[in-house]
Design goal:
The complex is a heterodimer of chains A (385) and B (294). Chain A is of the alpha/beta class and 385 residues long. Chain A is built from 12 helices and 16 strands. Helices cover 38% and strands 22% of the residues of chain A. Chain B has 2 domains: 28 residues, no CATH class; 258 residues, Rossmann fold (3-Layer(aba) Sandwich). An 8-stranded mixed β-sheet of chain B has the order 2-1-3-4-6-5-8-7, sandwiched between helices. Classes of the chains: A alpha/beta (385), B alpha/beta (294). The complex binds thiamine diphosphate, iron/sulfur cluster (SF4) and magnesium ion (MG).
């Protein structure tokens, strides 16, 4: 399907990442946003509030992030593509509803414009320190999807992908920006609606009585319906069977959890999205994501000029983590360097995949600004030794 | 889905005449509620209200939070959502705003709606969100074993108030009224006709409707405080209820086993959140704006 032209602001714009993310959501067909203001994410909802009355849809500023994060789930069960937008403290408040979205398989996009933490931390300054929170923050086992853009253009492009993935997998999809990407202004080219592919919700064509709200018929992801379509569905956060009825026993729990995890983890490569540059034949591979990838690229250039064979592997999709790819590389390279704006989060995934077969050097940063390229470069030099 | 009896075992047990059955998910019965619990009685009233409302039941959705009362959604043969503790109102807000054609009912407990969910309650009332709220008030946290609730009167013991409650309780009709609800009523499960009628009126009303249904929890609240069984509580409701339609909600607070002012306290008109939005944006944006949900 092509994008609905009503939501697409075709043309070349000079806008920041927050504004571009909002345009991406509109182009993707998002027509329901509930949010609560928090720096550095607020511009996303401010723009949505200004744009949506003329596009046709709904924005509401709720009383807090707990409310926002479940209002969108109500919106999704009424048939809309939905999003909420926040930053650290707000994300912490949303955690119960990440789990509710996961167990009820409610498609939604949650934008996290990351700032320094913990707690109120650094409201106006960048970090990438929520990476593990989005993976593990709600209680119980589940598997979300998370994407990490590094420019305003990608805030637009990848947002469409985020919405499409939410529909295909029916999981909460996190859009992991940071303060720098959110607030940097760059050229953003928005194509014609006819050049934007969007995935529409897969609504069932089954009649009431034939349809089971969580029935899978061999596929991993159930067909959806919406309130008002006559299916008289029941949706609960309790462990449930295919009818959506509570089924609180170990067998039902095992069946449901395995499917919820497998539907994402057994993706056959469709959820591997990385950008690789000079990885073939490299001695050292830098693994980075988001804003840090731009700093890393400068460090890598400089190291290459000094004759080192350095590759760059940038994660576009961070969760699920492309472990298989890292396993393959681990047999070929000497070391990995992992710079990130946190005290060492995604490096744990790299170490897990490498499993001792190569050296892994973490380049942590407490946040508040980006790395000095020289710090990453000296880690590369160390790694090449 | 079929509106007939489908479960032969239940036909056997309750007889074909039971008018409530078609509204329930018969394949989910028996329910979890204790003997003498009042929640089921409120559900009876609700089904009667649905019948008399003339609403297309495919367009009615019910949303609950967590608790004994929170299980109501799961038994109703409607589009039904059992959400998280305290968050039925914001979920229902999302459902309603995303599909304004739905009639959305929130059905939950006193703790769910006014302790953990209190913030959502006051803001939804302030906005005049078009939702009907049924609050089953049993003065306790039933599901978790009888802890103190924001509605527990001063005096009785609760597991977390082992020496008797000393916290001042909410007067729920006053709270709803002060926050802007357009319809506020209180009945007990003794008043089945009046409760059903209030629910019917609530279903027909646009805006934030609040109905408090006083209901016994014999297993926890009554037993702990030696108040007898469910029937004894209904006797108390009968003896001590005082009908006062239009009462000043300030005056309807409840004391432990004291008088119960019942009636319809508030019935007024105010534009709903969505009506206000459409009216306002239409005025400011003119032709550029197409009314939402029209
Ligand atoms: C976030 C969260 N906190 C606590 C609980 C535990 N819990 C479940 S129901 C409940 C109270 C229910 O009381 P009420 O809303 O009055 O419903 P009742 O059972 O009395 O009908 C609590 C505290 C929970 N499920 N979720
Ligand atoms: S514990 Fe109390 S409120 Fe819960 S079902 Fe039993 S009697 Fe009803
Ligand atoms: Mg209660």
């Amino acid at each position: 399907m092509h994008a609905d032209p009503k939501g697409v602001l075709t043309g070349v714009h000079f806008i920041d990442g927050d504004h571009a993310a909002c345009e991406g959501a509109l182009a993707a067909g998002c027509r329901f946003v509930a949010g609560y203001p928090i720096t550095p994410s607020t511009e996303v909802v401010e723009r949505f509030a200004a744009r949506i009355p003329q596009v046709g849809g709904m924005f509401i500023q709720m009383e807090d992030e707990i409310a926002s994060s479940i209002a969108i789930l109500g919106g999704a069960w009424a048939g809309k593509k939905v999003m909420t937008v926040t930053s650290g403290p707000g994300l912490s408040l949303m955690m119960e509803h990440i789990g509710y979205a996961a167990i009820t398989e409610t498609p939604c996009v949650i934008v996290d414009v990351q700032r320094g933490g913990p707690s109120t931390g650094l409201p106006t300054l960048p970090a990438q320190a929520d990476m593990m929170q989005v993976r593990w923050g709600s209680h119980g086992d589940y598997m979300p999807i998370a994407l990490s853009p590094n420019s305003p253009q990608e805030c637009f492009d990848l947002m469409i992908k985020a919405f499409n993935l939410a529909e295909v997998y029916r999981v909460p999809v996190f859009f992991m920006m940071d303060e720098v990407v959110g607030h940097m202004t760059e050229r953003v080219a928005i194509p014609a609606a006819s050049e934007i592919d969007v995935v529409e919700r897969h609504f069932t064509t089954k009649k009431p009585g034939e349809y089971k709200v969580f029935g899978t018929n061999g596929s991993m992801v159930p067909e959806m319906t919406k309130a008002g379509d006559g299916h008289r569905i029941h949706v609960t956060g309790l462990t449930h069977d295919e009818r959506g009825y509570p089924a609180m026993n170990p067998a039902a729990q095992d069946k449901l959890l395995r499917r919820l995890l497998d539907k994402v983890n057994n993706h056959n490569g469709e959820l591997v999205d990385v950008r690789m540059d000079g990885v073939e034949g490299a001695d050292v591979v830098v693994v980075s994501f988001g804003i840090t990838s731009r700093v890393a690229a400068a460090a890598i250039e400089s190291a290459r000029r000094k004759g080192l064979k350095v590759g760059h592997l940038r994660l576009i999709i961070c969760w699920p983590f492309p472990a298989k790819l890292i396993v393959e590389l681990a047999g070929k390279v000497k070391s990995f360097v992992v710079p990130e704006l946190n005290m060492g989060q995604m490096v744990l995934e790299v170490e897990r995949a490498v499993a001792g077969r190569a050296r892994v050097i973490s380049v942590p940063h407490a946040g508040g600004t980006v790395h000095e390229p020289a710090v990453i470069e000296s880690a590369i030099m160390e790694a090449a030794r | 889905m079929s509106s007939e009896w489908t479960n032969p075992e239940l036909i056997e047990r309750y007889g074909i005449e039971n008018p409530v059955m078609p509204y329930l998910r018969q394949d989910r019965l028996p329910h979890i509620w204790c003997p003498g619990c009042g929640i089921g009685t409120t559900v009876n009233c609700f089904t009667r209200a649905l019948t008399e409302s003339g609403l297309d039941l495919d367009q009615v959705a019910i949303v609950s939070g967590i608790g004994c009362t929170g299980r109501v959604a799961g038994y109703m043969n409607l589009d039904s959502f059992h959400t998280t503790h305290g968050r039925a109102i914001p979920f229902a807000t999302g459902l309603k705003l995303a599909n304004p054609k739905l009639k959305v009912v929130v059905y939950s407990g006193d703790g769910d709606l006014t302790a953990i969910g209190g913030n959502h309650f006051v803001h939804a009332a302030r906005r005049n969100m078009d939702l009907m709220i049924v609050c089953v008030n049993n003065f306790t946290y039933g599901m978790t074993g009888g802890q103190v609730a924001p509605t527990t009167p001063i005096g009785p013991t609760q597991t977390t108030m082992p020496y008797g409650n000393f916290e001042n309780p909410f007067n729920l009709p006053f709270l709803a009224d002060a926050c802007g609800a357009v319809y506020v009523a209180r009945w007990t499960i003794f008043h089945v006709r009046q409760l059903a009628k209030a629910m019917k009126e609530g279903l027909a009303k646009k805006g934030f409707v609040f109905i408090e249904a006083m209901s016994p929890c014999p297993t926890l609240y009554s037993r702990r405080n030696r108040l007898g069984d469910g029937v004894d509580q209904v006797k108390y409701y009968k003896e001590r209820s005082i009908l006062r339609n239009g009462a000043d909600t300030k005056e309807v607070g409840l004391a432990y086993q004291g008088d119960i002012i019942v009636g319809k306290f508030v019935d007024r008109e105010r534009p709903t959140w969505m009506e206000s939005m459409n009216e306002h944006l239409g005025r400011v944006l003119g032709d550029k704006y197409t009314p939402y949900g029209a």
